RNA sequence: GGCGGGGUAGCUCAGUCGGUUAGAGCGCAGGACUCAUAAGCCUGAGGUCAGUGGUUCGAUUCCACUUCCCGCUACCA
């Protein structure tokens, strides 16, 4: 797996912001980019690389890509005039402009625009219209989720104009090869990060060979068009294979009300993490947000999630089984010799669904994944309840099997939860004296992963319950 | 204005290629138990599946219209 993220550091917006603070743009970007790299640590992301568009490796790739497009006659020099919004990084036509109190602004975004008239290179986007439509049709999952595909298709069907891909009005960006007074357009620059991180144009290197075409570009829905229209067109023009899928995810909203600390509907992830911890937040987002749609976050629902799912269902299951094993199985993994049908129903749930789980996760159906885990948790708790091992003290074999089965359930569930709540699972695995390196997906199909006789450790409470305020 | 998505239990959402009593989680009420973070388990209350009309033996599911929300897009100007 190669999980790439990074920062786009291009453009007039940044140049001006840096000037305003009276710092060098590069220094300014260093600082901003660092906050994102810090954030990726704070959120415990597992990205394998972090690319910045100001890095040399990136610049070289972008300039090479430009040359390829030029070589294939997809770039021509012309002149552009129009209203430009710095903050939107977009041009607008006369019709898209409103004037208010002598200030001209884009009707759609309300951001101020300025008249720009300059020489510009253009990309022959119009030329790729049919091929794009054709590609969408042949690859129905290319634009996901499906609900967003139509709007892209209808946009392309509406007709594509050639795209201005260079600017002369500012200097903070990657220079056009052999035309250093031009700076390369932001989206041609930024999107290229996907292949610059894989060392394109060196297509024979291991990274590129192994990870291109990428299996998915996971992006916010607001930049879907750039990823599903412009980027594929650039790639087609440069004769580079297209990524397999563009997935536009939704946004996290804070209920109907605006964020306000006094109202208690805080939205800043850092605040939430400080109050509740990182893993509960990660869990909440995965569970409560219907992936692909916008989702709401509320403190109340987050607290419910922590208490019900994490503390009561998962945390308490770990506690009750390990505490029982400590008292009745001399703190070690008991023998598992005699599974009966009830035990096997539990354990086979994972075996039987391994393929389905993989398929769904490959389709970004995260909600299926989490729902599977939750139902397994319910069943595991019910199983332990119904089997009443505390009444089986005169039937040691049966008691042992119940405990073994329950431990295996905890183990399987924990393995599956690892991508969602990694640091909590790291703690949970101490029950079995395992570390996260032991986690492998295939083993959730096994029934005898835990070795009889190995020690079982009772662990600290994984998730403390939140005392809810009455209202 | 056009295109697309959506309006299902108090809340967040599944689902129905048309078919007997519409599902889950949370929340709420009651019960039995006690290994456990007063957790877990069982039972229950709660829905005219946005509205109207149509097709059909039968529609929440198909069609039309209406209404509300969201996204994209266009225009009036």
In short:
With 471 residues, the protein is an alpha/beta fold. The protein contains 16 helices and 16 strands. The protein binds one RNA strand of 77 nucleotides through helix 5, strand 16, helix 12 and helix 14.
Strand and helix layout:
Blueprint: E1 4-7, H1 12-20, H2 25-42, E2 49-52, H3 56-71, E3 75-85, E4 90-92, E5 97-100, E6 103-106, E7 114-123, H4 129-138, E8 143-144, H5 146-157, E9 163-164, E10 166-167, E11 175-176, E12 179-184, H6 186-190, H7 193-196, H8 206-211, E13 217-220, H9 224-237, E14 246-249, E15 252-253, H10 269-276, H11 278-288, E16 295-296, H12 299-328, H13 341-362, H14 366-387, H15 396-417, H16 422-428
Parallel strand pairs: 1-2, 8-14, 13-14, 15-16
Antiparallel strand pairs: 3-4, 3-7, 5-6, 7-9, 10-12, 11-12
Helix pairs in contact: 1-2, 10-11, 11-12, 12-14, 12-15, 13-14, 13-15, 14-15
The chain binds one RNA strand of 77 nucleotides through residues 95, 146-152, 154-155, 158, 221, 225, 287-288, 290, 293-296, 300-301, 304-305, 307-309, 311-313, 315-324, 327-328, 367, 371, 374-375, 378, 381-382, 384-386, 388-390, 461-465.
